[in-house]
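#struct-pred

JT: dropping the chains for the assembly here, can someone run the whole complex?
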Amino acid sequence: MYHRYVVVALSRRKPNEGKELTKEEKQRLRKQKKHQKKQKERKNEKGPSETEKDKTPVSLLPPPQPVATQKAPSALPAPASAPIPVPASAPFHSSPAPSPADKPAKSKAELKAERRARQETDRAAKQPGSSSSGIKTKVPLSELNPVVKRLPEHVQVDDPAVVKRLAKKLERQQIPLRSDYGYKVSLFSHLHQYSRKAPLTQLLSIPSTVIHPSIVRLGLQYSQGIVAGSNARSVALLHAFKQVIRDYTTPPNEELSRDLVNKLKPYISFLNQCRPLSASMGNAIKYIKKEISNIPSQCKEEEAKTKLLTCIDRYIEEKIVLAAKAISKYAIEKISDGDVILVYGYSSLVNNILCEAFEKSRKFRVIVVDSRPRLEGREALRRLVQRGISCTYVLISALSYILPEVSKVFLGAHALLANGYVMSRVGTSQIALVARTYNVPVLVCCETYKFCERVQTDSFVSNELDDPDDLMVTRKGKTQLENWQDVSSLGLLNLVYDVTPPDFVDLVITDLGMIPCTSVPVVLRVKNLDQ
Amino acid sequence: MELQAVLMAAGGGSRMMDLTYNTPKPLLPVGNKPLIWYPLNLLERVGFEEVIVITTKEVQKMISTDPKVKLDVKMKLDLVCIQEDADMGTADALRHIQQKVKTDVLVVSCDLITDAALHEVVDLFRAHNATLSMLMSKAHEFTETVPGQKGKKKTGEQRDFVGVDGTGKRLLFMANEADLDEGVVIRKSIMRKHPRMHIKTGLVDAHLYCLKKSVVDFLADNKSISSIRGELVPYLVRKQFSKSTNSPKVIDETHQNLKKNDSNVNLEIQISSRDEELLHLTQERSCWNDHRGDMSDAYHGGRLRCYVHIMDEGICYRVNTLAAYIEANRLAPKLFDEPAVHPSAVVSERCLIGADSIIGASCQISDKTSIKRSTIGVSTTVREKVKVTNSIIMHGVTIEEGCNIQGSVICSNAVIGRGADIKYCLVGSAQRIEPDALPFETLLRPPCLRSTLTPTSTHRSTHTQCLFKQLNRNNTCLC
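RK: done, full complex below.
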């Protein structure tokens, strides 16, 4: 089979090149034999197909063939490696072990590679410019190697190998490992669950030397909930990074652009241990790391530091403060006089919009819906009433009773995912669902820096578990759930986030304008092109 | 660097002069370790690497020369000496070391013995960006009888009134009974902001304070404050609610007014930090509030905050009275895991040593002795047939045969003669008890002219010509 094509290709060759070709041919033969020997070692099961290759004639060796044979062995490891990452990244499918899956996969990949090699020689034979075959053969190679993304460690807590890896990494960075607390509901056993009464600082030395004091303070504020809310957390993070940059001195023989990024890594692990990072924080960290690595090496330290500090200030100014102003401008167009607006929980952006609309003398009233255990709606209520807006306060259980009165629903978002789903405080999807049933428009307000490339269709895969003891309530001195840990069949679940499908969301108001939910990937692509 | 530790070891121990007239208070042995070892150990366990120790020249000399005073700490000790007779308060001492203070400070007193989790105090300081954070503990009644005191008497120690908010963490009110004329007076502004306040009286102040650097700078300008506990802390607690702290001041103005030499040089000017706008933005966007029910922002917009961590369980003692000293000796061994009997002590076979007794290094305990619930110091010699119960025996003491010591404190280098029967007494340093003496509830100290007991004398009396008569009324001295 193989050499038939070989014969066809050679017939076009000039006859007086025969003698030179024979020497080169001999060299190529030798190379080919070496490759074949390697192939024989690898695939001992495939008897008949190899004997075919041995039959290739000595004199007839076209240029494409060595490329093809060279490509074939190199194509083999590529598909062989492709199946290996797949089992590693899907620990939920625990049955297939990597080693037995390799051998049948290798043979299939081999066949594929051979077939492709034949196709390539075919194409090369048809076209006179055979040098391009080299480039063409590389294209399928990259298709064979998909970009393998590993799952983040904080959603694989039930996999002991991953936990061990994380523990080793933290030990290397000299950060204590925070241990999980209490019984976890089995559906969410792959997530961390920490207790507020066991802060990470009890395992650290008190004048913290490993971690910068402002980062320790930030971690404490995150874990105790003093800084809560996507925007507040990002601003606080950038503020702490500013302190770190101010106190940073480049060690000798190191470059600021590389060393500072390495210094920030343990801090980010520490903050992750205190409370899992939000999508907005992740984007802010990516931006800072990019800015730091873009600093030219001949830049002096002081100059570099001031440059970074101004970058951070500009980021906050543009992405948070000005974005809020732009979003309010768009949103106010959507608020008309006589509206009854429903908001859920506390969203700094939605509060901002409502206060600005009130200042622009729109007549509306607000219904604040709240839910346990965080009861963030109380704070939203306080700030709105302080401005003079007339408000009503209900708990989420009364949602279907008050929805007939509502004309619009404004929701905030923690992150907007790449498939158009909205990730927000737990309960938001319920609000959107019931609003859709009553045909009330749902508008989600979100800045573009919270757009995330993750894709999620349910709230189980990636979420955050808060302290289960928050669900305990003390009334008249009695706490019914005090000994919940002793009851073996009882588990307390305190979820923080949930995802709302784009069918329930009518409009997303961002600083780029008002877009439908499904346009999020477009915005992400445009952003990536900019960067 | 985040925090600097400052250990105050210059106090005189004025409430237990019987013990401290010869040995300075930081070096009094508690459980056979000098008193200063305990706070140093606490700081070392928590992770400090350097401590500034403010002490007197005498103590410094003894630490460096005396082999019995081994501090066994791996931290770097920066000893700062102050004059003994300068009568400096703790705040004056802080002012003295103002140049060395570069960050926030953690002030500890040398007489604190505790196993508290320090991170609780420091976490309050960090998380709420507080100006002051302190440690307090529920007071326990002292159960041991104190030698030299007739029965249980209360010196009428002034009570402290401590007011905390609903969470039990924020410090709203602090006053000592001595400063109050008629009753507890609470300002309306405090009640408006914190309508529910719990006032507690049975608390022991551990004298462990986390202070911001701006407070130390403030002290440098205000020379009228001399004691941290007595003046600075109540001042800070009051200042939380004063109008000037809470009025919305424009920050630019305050920066320009930094040079003003006003005696009420505003603490809040020094509190403002860089990037105030970002912190303000964070607080504005965050949905957290420390209280609810009224229309004000978190912390009521106040920038000066004082927090307290009140320990429920655990050991926390301040060894500043004799009763506390004895109690501490009983409980201190629980704080460290060294074996009760020091390996270098020579203990004979036929003696009975109770499980809760401690025998120091290089002791010699002879036959037929019984030691129960007691502490025997370093290089002490105990001869045959001695019964020691419930007592504290310091270093270098010689106890001859047949003695019976009960509930007493025998200070360093004393000699107890043969057959003496000592009950509930305090024998001062280098004193001699004659053989067959029977002192009962007495205190023996120099420089009484005749400080030896004659046999069969068992009286307790107050000797008016004693040079130490000014100490306390119930001081009994035998001359």
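JT: nice. The interface with chain A takes residues 1-5, 46-49, 106, 117-119, 122-123, 126-129, 275, 278-279, 281-289, 292, 295 of chain B (CB under 8 Å). Confidence is low (pLDDT under 50) at residues 249-265, 447-479 of chain B.
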